[in-house]
Design goal:
Strand content: 35-45%
Largest sheet: 10 strands, mixed
Number of strands: 19
Radius of gyration: 18 Å
Shape: globular
Structural class: mainly beta
Amino acid sequence: MSPRSTRAAGTTARPLRAAAAALAVAACAACTIPTNNPTGRAGATADPELCGERQVPGGVPVPTGDLSGWKQIFTDDFDRCDLGSDWGPYSGQPGGNPNSHWDRSMVEVSGGALTLKAERSAGEWVTGGVSNYPVTQQYGRWEIRMRADRSDDISYHMLLWPKSENWPPEIDFAESVSGERSQMDAWVHWVDSNGENKKAQATVRGDFSDWHTVGVEWGPGIIRYLLDGAVWAEVRSDAMIPDEPMWLGLQAEAGACERRADWGMAPCSDASPLQPDSVGVQIDWVAVYSPERSQPDATAPTPGAVQMTEDG
């Protein structure tokens, strides 16, 4: 679930703490997400011949212009070699996840895409993650064109994290611990009226080793989870939905087998062929919108969408 980084059974990886600068963001209690890199270069070596070209690795160009009810405020199609100043690479151990370690060298921009890499050496995993903390807002729409290599060991987490760094809330709109990438999960985390941390989850099937556009719309009393432009799940509850500014986090983490056990899913097999030592999660582009009206239309449930409730 989140940049924080770890999720309790069914959580995400959460960033926990800001660095010294006002824009610095922490990803977990034990680690800081550094943002004091003036060039934004994450440290991985990119092929200069693949930088600056108008490539569309995901097969769908980055959207341009406003949508009905939404004003486009930010896009990034990663058509360069540097990460750029709109992103901060994570470093350190995800809070609560002893199986993974973030390092800026695992973030690469090349070939028209951002790749969050994961590499295993001597039994230890190092992975990549980034935050889009300069684009922080209360309510909005976020979309990402992405895919992930098949792996039993590596999960991915695309989420909204609170600017306050006080967790919860958290909105996870695309997560997968499926080795085959045959399913994707959405989560929402909140604090109930008794002060207890609560969460709800929904699952959608598909081949997420192939390119898809995943996203979320968030407004007062409504969260809609998007897949290729369609609403597949939603939350319709004032109690469950955050009302504070949040920013986008994109993460790859090790420990997917352990998380599967937490979530009550089938365990990983030692004989599984899905255990490569190098795994990539690719993002072709990111688009962010602010609401042009007070909120997305929340008058009626979306036909066919999974309704996530306080009961889980």
